[in-house]
Amino acid sequence: MPDRPYYPRKARIIVVKKGNSKDGGGIISYELRTDYPHVDSLISEHKTQDEAQDAKQRYERM
Description:
alpha+beta, GCC-box Binding Domain, 21% helix, 34% strand
């Protein structure tokens, strides 16, 4: 059994703004999304961009 999949795994980080951002009360989160197994599948959600970037790197290395 191979250690890696036969295809390259790709993910992208999407910035999501929640709440009312006009008065500064909005919250920003970062979603990790991919097109496998379905188009625009949500893999994970993170509070910081650094956490999302780390998750993206780990997902693409699998």
